[in-house]
Amino acid sequence: TDLIKSDLKINWNLDNKEHDFILNTIIENKKHIKYDNSRGDIRESLPEINGERQKMYDFKRSPTKTELNSGKIFGGLPLKDPRRDYSKTYGILNSQFVGLMNNNTPVRIKKDKYNRIDNNINKVWFVLTIKFSDSNKNLCMSKPSDQKGYCAYDLESAKSIFSWFSMTKVLLGNIPSWANQFNIWQPEIKKEFATYYYALCYAFALAENRCVVTKFEADNPVKDAPEIFVENPLCPANKDAFWATTLDVKVTKEHGIAFELVNKIKQLYKTWNLNYCKGQFLFNIGLKNEPYFKYFAYDDFLTPYSGLIQIRKHAEIENLTDILDLIDEIKELSKKVKEEIYNLLVNEFKYFE
Length: 353
Description:
Elements: H1 16-27, E1 48-49, E2 52-53, E3 60-61, H2 65-70, E4 89-90, E5 97-100, E6 106-109, E7 124-127, E8 139-141, E9 149-152, H3 155-171, H4 194-208, E10 214-216, E11 228-230, H5 242-247, H6 257-277, E12 282-283, E13 301-302, H7 308-318, H8 321-348
Antiparallel strand pairs: 1-2, 3-4, 5-6, 7-8, 7-9, 10-11, 12-13
Helix pairs in contact: 3-4, 3-8, 4-6, 4-8, 6-8, 7-8
């Protein structure tokens, strides 16, 4: 797949034996790519949950005939969300659990058979595709998305899920053309690099996540629907968050650039709280038109534990230079972590060989 036009500039009027000799000379030092299923499937790396590998979660669905014929409200989107007029619907009408559309609009959803759905912050959710060609769609979020949702709920699942997310973002647009014909497969992680590799993946997702803090207001979309608060499982300042309880101790000083990135994000949260939140909620902070607030009657708000994308947006609106400077430093460190993950995958783990 790396041949170019000039490589095949030969006399095609020669006989077959001479063509065989010339072409064999051209390809004898080229890599041989196996077009079979021997590389496996990235989903095979997921640990078992309730006796089987977790399946993706989604809440996009076709409305039932009963719902369509009832003339009543159905689906879990906020009442003012225009997607209520789509041919598909999302979630269920009255639930105490929340998912998020890809743009972070809250949706009321039902539990799944793996008991992954709750209101705690001891899980991180991802949108994860199995094709290289779709990996630009992958996201790291506070709650399950409307489709292709997978959950990191403990350390073993985090290894698989954070690796899957990070490697697709790192390899995006930088893979051999033949790889686009395959589903993503699990890298063969060398034992001596394992803790370092996973630390890089955890740090990368911490910097690149799209987690938010918001709430689904009560009596929406129907009366007596409960208020549901959505917190950020990847806030290092929150001692109850998945990051603090499960991953923080796995990124240490010996992990170099990963540790630097995590510390810079911790510095941002410390600065955000000391200089602005001071342990309280901030209201009317310029984010009312964001998808996670716009369909609700309450005032938009930020907390000491809000998502990085929320803090960054507010800092841009208010020109908070101390926060913006830290965000720039996080971007640079995240870029270096990304380069290091790529180096391990391609040069150490020989991912494409």
